[in-house]
Amino acid sequence: MGDFNQETLDWVNLTTHAKGEEFLYLIQDLFLTQHMSEPTRGDIILDLVLMTEEAMVDEVHTGKPNSGQQPLHTKMEYNL
């Protein structure tokens, strides 16, 4: 889980501009699944939850920022 700042990546359609292609290929080559489906900064998904096992994550939700300068907080439920 982290802030990847790949604003050119469209996680719904798995498309990107040339700038993000290498990162997207790496995610796919490592068989990682991206679980964040809600925008985390403006209308884009910058904070990602990447897992090798899709069933490990039940839900991921974003919440309102704690202040005007703070990023959204994220709540994640997962199975070990």
Q: How is the secondary structure organized here?
A:
Elements: E1 2-3, H1 18-29, E2 33-34, E3 47-48, E4 50-51, E5 57-62, E6 74-78
Antiparallel strand pairs: 1-3, 2-4, 5-6
Describe the structure.
With 80 residues, the chain is α+β, with helices and mostly antiparallel strands. It has one helix at 18-29; strands at 2-3, 33-34, 47-48, 50-51, 57-62, 74-78. It has one domain. The longest helix has 12 residues, at 18-29. The relative contact order is 0.21. Residues 61-80 are annotated as: Disordered.
As residue ranges, the low-confidence spans are none
Find the structural class using helix and strand composition: alpha+beta
How do the strands line up in the largest sheet?
A: 1-3
Q: What oligomeric assembly is this protein in?
A: single chain
- Give the overall average pLDDT: 75
Please provide the count of β strands: 6
Helix segment count? 1
Span between N and C termini?
Answer: 16 Å
Strand content: 15-25%
Q: What is the H/E string?
A: EHEEEEE
| General shape | flat
Rg (C-alpha, Å)? 13 Å
Summarize the model shown.
The protein contains one helix and six strands, in the order βαβββββ. The chain is α+β, with helices and mostly antiparallel strands. The protein has one domain (2-78).
